[in-house]
Model the fold of this input.
Amino acid sequence: MPTDMPPSSITDDCRIAREQAQVAQKEAAAAEEEFNTASADLDLDPFEERTVKARATKRVAEHAKAAGHAARKAREAATRARAALRVLGERASDPAAGLRNLANAAADDADAAFAAAEKADEFRKKAISTFAVVEELEVKEFFETHKEQIFARLEECDRIAQAAPTNSSMTFIAESLPIIHSIIQVGTNRPTLHRASQWVRDTWGDETDPLITLSALLFIYVANEGAKEKKGDEGWERINERVQKLMRGP
Amino acid sequence: MKIDLQVCNPSGHPRSGHVTAPLERLGVKGVAPGPVTVTAGSKRLSAQVDQVVKGDPSSRVLSILLPDPVGAGDPNYAPPGFKVTLDTAASAPAPAGPRLDVVRTNCVASGVKLVNERLTVWFNLVPSLDQPEQHWYAGAATSVILDGAEVLDPNPFVQKHDWEKRCMQLDRVRLPQLDVYLAGQGYELVCESTGPVRATFTAASQPFIYHERRPFAASRALTCRVYRNISLYAGADYLVEELFVQGTPADAPNAVVPLTFIPRYFAYVNAPRLHCSRFPERPDWFGIASLIPPFPSLGFATDVHSGPVVQPHPGYPIREGEEKTLSWELFPCVHARCAHLFMRPRPSVREMWPNETYQQYELERADEARRICEDRIGSLWYAEIFKPLGLQRS
Done:
């Protein structure tokens, strides 16, 4: 058994961790830039604006995914470096202090990479929740046509939830979900729903349930629109706050 | 004349509900259809007699509503049971019960609406709805409203309801060497009655000729009809159906020949993610639940075995929506008693756990809805089909 590990593998891993951390930072910055494009008021023709925003939203997701990937690679490299350093420490009486510092720095880089990846993921979620789902499902027109009916139903659900002795937030969600699902069922068609489901799987992974995710995102969109339209209404502020819970994963 | 009867409860626990028995089996004759007087001691019970087949007094059935539980009894219906007395001489008031409204177009009954406290079902007797070019709705329940909301299309945008939605449709009846397709043929309303216990009607398909082969005699031509007797009981969220095929020989028009047949049911439920819960070791019932809120669900139970549920229905012509179609065949039978249950299970509402994602939460609720559906249809099969309350003469 060798009495010491070649220090070059530790330095390589530390270098990889630093590089991947820089990649993660860059991807996170790019995600933020794309998000700003996707959420800005562009002075364009509506169809063109929709296309630009949809593309920007997709790129936010791509950058977030790349940032996450880089962060994972950085952490793996940092872990390898630390493990190699431990073995070296057991076998040699005094491993080079420089190597130890490098490994610690690699661990810090990996943490920073993860922080960047999380930030990028937040931008991704915000971008998607704000408008992408309506574009993917092609229900904007249906929603605009039936907005008053939908808002009235949600207000009714809010009254039911307020009267519930416990679990008023989840009672509101349970009572309102049928109307949200019906917007998807009635407002879209089978090919569009299939494409939107694929978009969910591409964005969040194959383990994600497309219908549940689409309904959650649409719910957030509807709640946002209602809160915007009925600004200052205590009921709608309450509705919006309850619906934000749905942002917890995927 | 006072006739003593006994209500037998085959279960190990007290049960209330309704009990039904053919008058012929009870040895009772001469009782006209309508409300009748039945007493349990000094207490008057809601009861009625219905005629199932027109012109056939032997098809009369007595139904009694038992609001108070009857104690546990012998699982094989052995006496003693709960004593009730039928008074054929006394007149009975007609208290309100489930309602039956017949809609006629050009003197032909085009549909029947059954209404009770919870359920409103529209049953189409003719092939078309409002559009003449759509002519495949005969024998289907095209609208089922439970507690104020449509089950077959739960979306609240009523004007956007799917025209294809329907259930309980007898799509095909199979006899030896003959398949009869019924969706495009009208039904004739042959009997109808209401009372305090139930609203019931019998519809008969258009006659068709069947050449019956007999092993020790020459084959003969029979004029056959498929009979469907459908009942809605007071307070129930399900319909009970009795199904049989009868033929009449050309040379003996008063003779009735019961035939063995295989019925096939069809349903179209405009709800996403339909899940069928069927247990092969118990092929007499199954549940179909949508796993998306508000979880509209159907249940089916029968006293003859049911084959597997096929989804989508084979040969359904409209590709968009085929995933919403289902069909199933029963085993060969001479007479089938079926229950069609409608539900909207309400899973419990709780706060999400700290590390629980919304997806996990919703999937658990959907699973609970499915289990509620299974539990309900299994219980109904037991209570209505497998071990119903029994009625016999003392």
